[in-house]
Q: What sequence folds into this?
């Protein structure tokens, strides 16, 4: 069963520069706690109910902050798959249509790294009917959004790989 983007209540997120996302990914890799429950266990009714109750409790604590000068909020999806994955079941045109219905302004595509397919050259980049698409990939434990194709540098040692991803800011 596929959920339409328009059926989901999306939080408003700031668009983070690709280099910063790589940094967040590096940080997340170093402080990952051991999982208390498996993915299957987390889907049991009691755990889903507890998660829902936590959401309701946290919603009561939510505060609206005043806008900061010269900053803009963009309703964004920071990790999305389209035709690149068998578990996706959707296409970029369907994603675009649902994003427009839900008011999503930015979609950061995160294709699976599957050579020889180039996740940059063979994807959408830029504005499509008012929605900004940024191509990227799940690769080597990172979410990467380079400015240009780095297919010929994917096997570099980590420092060189990070430099290739962040080249061009």
A:
């Amino acid at each position: 069963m596929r959920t339409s983007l328009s059926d989901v209540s999306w939080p408003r997120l700031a668009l983070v520069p690709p280099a910063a996302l790589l940094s967040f990914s590096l940080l997340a890799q170093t402080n990952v706690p051991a999982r208390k429950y498996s993915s299957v266990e987390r889907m049991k009714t009691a755990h889903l109910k507890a998660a829902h109750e936590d959401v309701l409790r946290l919603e009561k604590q939510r505060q609206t902050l005043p806008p900061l000068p010269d900053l803009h909020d963009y309703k964004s999806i920071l990790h999305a798959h389209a035709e690149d994955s068998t578990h996706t079941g959707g296409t970029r045109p369907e994603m675009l249509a649902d994003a427009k219905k839900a008011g999503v302004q930015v979609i950061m595509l995160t294709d699976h790294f599957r050579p020889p397919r180039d996740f940059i050259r063979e994807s959408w980049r830029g504005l499509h009917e008012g929605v900004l698409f940024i191509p990227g990939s799940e690769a080597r434990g990172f979410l990467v959004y380079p400015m240009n194709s780095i297919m010929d540098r994917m096997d570099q040692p980590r420092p060189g790989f990070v430099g290739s991803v962040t080249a061009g800011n």
About this structure: The beta strands are 76-80, 106-109, 111-112, 126-128, 131-134, 137-139, 142-144. Residues 136 and 145 are 4 Å apart (CA to CA). The mean pLDDT is 80.
